[in-house]
TrEMBL record:
InterPro entries: DsrA (IPR011806), NiRdtase/SiRdtase_haem-b_fer (IPR005117), Nit/Sulf_reduc_fer-like_dom_sf (IPR036136), NO2/SO3_Rdtase_4Fe4S_dom (IPR006067), NO2/SO3_Rdtase_4Fe4S_prot (IPR045169), NO2/SO3_Rdtase_4Fe4S_sf (IPR045854). It comes from the Bacteria. Signal peptide: none annotated. This is Dissimilatory-type sulfite reductase subunit alpha. NCBIfam families: dsrA (TIGR02064). The gene is dsrA. Residues 86-151 form the Nitrite/Sulfite reductase ferredoxin-like domain. Residues 160-396 form the Nitrite/sulphite reductase 4Fe-4S domain. GO terms for molecular function: oxidoreductase activity. Coiled coil: none annotated. It is an enzyme of class 1 (oxidoreductase).
Length: 434
């Protein structure tokens, strides 16, 4: 290190807690990189004055309108010279992860070497942006760093008012809860809309996220404009042996208290063997010589609780598919919103199914591009124009499954009931016929 380390009493405090601190990592990099010494200087100043000192600007690479987040320092002396010159430019390259998000250790080492050569050495993998964030590079090195990554097949991600890089959970690659091929869904939607990522022309950002089951490990429902969540429509699968192992280990009391009583819709019962319900729609596991656990699948809302508590003993059904929600996002204009269901269930297995998903995604993106105001996310647009208008705009029928709280909402409109029922039946019959 050529540069003398700067005193950082406030940042140092962040290292005193029980968890590993990012400050320790930054200090380690600062031993070799003057840029990181000055970055710590600017950060410490921010902690002292409680102000941010980065401003944007225009930095890019040939052929792209986005993907680089420019950061220039505003901490300057009376002669307009930066107080921390080595970190005066600290841009970020957003780079899309490989399909499926698996890496070899060689590839990871190579990425670190590239970033050591051109940038600060600081990399963040797959945050909520979904990108590999190569953080800290001067303007003059940006093109060369991108070229080297690009020659190895890596592409820039999204930034600004554009389609953003997607996230999917690890899903089918490793997780027994997975209900569809998350990686394929992600790549289908993103690869077909890359133009909207690389040439920002939308009213504001737009995110697709994909979770393989309702556990929603990537927070798709809260954090994406269109969330695709795996689910199933038949019965929860039972592995009786594993249920019994669980009960043997934890006891029946815990089964009652932690599983049965926790079901939000009271769909699970403990019943004596001779009183088990007959017919379709029930999943049954004998828990010991006397009693059975019985799940009434018609009342199950796929909350995942019982499946999570008894790993392997209970698993998603066999008739799998996805639920699609739109309009989730962080704060901004109307506060945080969760996604609203627009497709209660669709299969996602055949080429045609994936094409249908692709078309829906494109329709929603187009509708957003044409109807949202500047700086307005999908959720806010829907809030402003109304869900019914949005559904009409993208050509979807209203469906009773879209009611947010079917079991607790006391407001039921019965005017025109018979006509609506007739229309509903007609639509159902037409769907069945066609
Ligand atoms: C197999 C299970 C899980 C997987 C694969 C998973 C995966 C992830 C991923 C990829 C992120 C984003 C990380 C980032 O932004 O850098 C995340 C964030 C998060 N996860 Fe999980 N997660 C799992 C289970 C859980 C559980 C059980 C909880 C809570 C009890 C949880 C709570 C959170 C929270 C609070 C965040 C931070 C969200 C934010 O950025 O604000 N996760 N998880
Ligand atoms: S969302 Fe479901 S399928 Fe995906 S990793 Fe989480 S638990 Fe597994
Ligand atoms: S997954 Fe279904 S049966 Fe299990 S706890 Fe949730 S609602 Fe109840």
């Amino acid at each position: 290190m050529a540069k003398q380390m700067i005193e950082t009493p406030l940042l140092d405090q962040l290292e005193s807690g029980p968890w590993p601190s990012f400050v320790t990592g930054l200090k380690r990099l600062a031993k070799e990189k003057d840029m990181m010494v000055d970055l710590l200087g600017q950060l410490e100043t921010s902690y002292r004055t409680r102000k941010g000192y980065w401003k944007g600007g225009t930095v890019g690479v040939f052929g792209y309108g986005g993907g680089v987040i420019p950061r220039f320092t505003e901490l300057k002396d009376e002669n307009d010279q930066p107080l921390f010159p080595d970190a005066a430019e600290f841009h970020t390259l957003r780079v899309q992860p490989p399909a499926g998000m698996h890496y070899t250790s060689d590839l990871l080492r190579w990425m670190c070497d590239v970033w050591d050569k051109y940038g600060s050495g600081l990399i963040a993998f797959h945050g909520q942006s979904g990108d590999i964030m190569f953080q800290g590079i001067k303007t003059e090195n940006v093109q060369a760093a991108f070229d080297e990554l690009n020659e190895h097949g890596f592409d820039l991600g999204g930034a600004g008012p554009a389609l953003r890089t997607s996230m999917s959970c690890v899903g089918a690659a490793r997780c027994e809860m997975s209900c569809y091929d998350e990686a394929r869904a992600l790549r289908t939607v993103i690869n077909n809309n890359l133009d909207d990522m690389h040439r920002p022309a939308l009213p504001y950002k737009f995110k697709f996220k994909f979770s393989g089951c309702p556990n929603d490990c990537v927070n798709a429902i809260q954090r994406s404009d269109m969330a695709t969540i795996g689910t199933w429509r038949d019965n929860i699968q039972v592995n009786e042996g594993l249920v019994q192992e669980w009960v043997a280990k934890h006891g029946k009391t815990e089964l009652v208290n932690q599983v049965i009583n926790m079901c939000p819709t009271k769909a699970i019962r403990l019943v004596p063997k001779d009183q088990v319900a007959k017919g379709d729609g029930y999943s049954v596991a004998a828990v010991d010589a006397q009693d059975c656990m019985e799940i009434d699948n018609h009342n199950c809302v796929r909350c995942m609780h019982c499946l999570n508590v008894i790993p392997g003993g209970l698993l998603p059904g066999k008739d799998k598919g996805v639920t699609i929600l739109v309009g989730g996002k962080g704060v901004l204009k109307i506060g945080a919103t969760m996604g609203t269901v627009i497709i209660p269930f669709m299969k996602l297995e055949s080429d045609e199914d994936f094409e249908k998903l692709n078309e829906l995604a494109r329709n929603i993106l187009d509708f957003f591009a044409e109807n949202a105001l500047e700086h307005e996310r999908t959720g806010e647009m829907i809030d402003r124009i109304g869900l019914v208008n949005f559904l009409e705009g993208i050509g979807l029928d209203v469906d009773p499954h879209m009611i947010l709280e079917p079991r607790s909402n006391p407001y039921v409109r019965t005017d025109g009931w018979d006509e609506e029922v007739a229309k509903w039946n007609e639509r159902k019959a037409a769907a069945k016929a066609g």
